[in-house]
Amino acid sequence: MSAVAATGLTEEERLFAEANGYLVVPDALSSDELETLRVAADRAEAAWRADTSLPGWRRENIEQIQSIIEYGDELVELAAHPAIFPVMRELLGDDGFVSTAGALQRLAYWEP
Question: Where are the domains of the chain?
Fold first, then answer.
């Protein structure tokens, strides 16, 4: 578990998240967890590309899988991960809401 999740956010981290809309949590996921998520995301993308009736954006300059969380339990579990959920809760509060509809967004000109 990352130090952030265990000890709470610093004021600098909170301000960064508020100003930029995201926060990088170093070492929040193990290399095995990251590989599992990469495989799940690749599987979701392949299924989405193979079935054009699945919802999402298919435009010249952007492609986005809608509701990617529905493509695998690994993606659902990420939202409740013990190193990530406490950070989200601290940033969003008890009444916060996390939308997973656009969890995977790949710009056509961006190469990972």
Answer: 3-107
Full-model pTM: 0.68
Which residue did the predictor score with more confidence, 99 or 83?
Answer: 83
Residues 6+ apart with CB under 8 A from 107: 61, 62, 63
Task: Dihedral sign for Cα 68, 6, 89, 91, please.
Answer: negative
Location of structure tokens 């809309």:
21
Q: 65 has which bridge partners? A: 56, 104
Question: What is the C-alpha to C-alpha distance for residues 40 and 95, in angstroms, rounded to an integer?
Answer: 29
* Structure tokens, 61: 């300059």
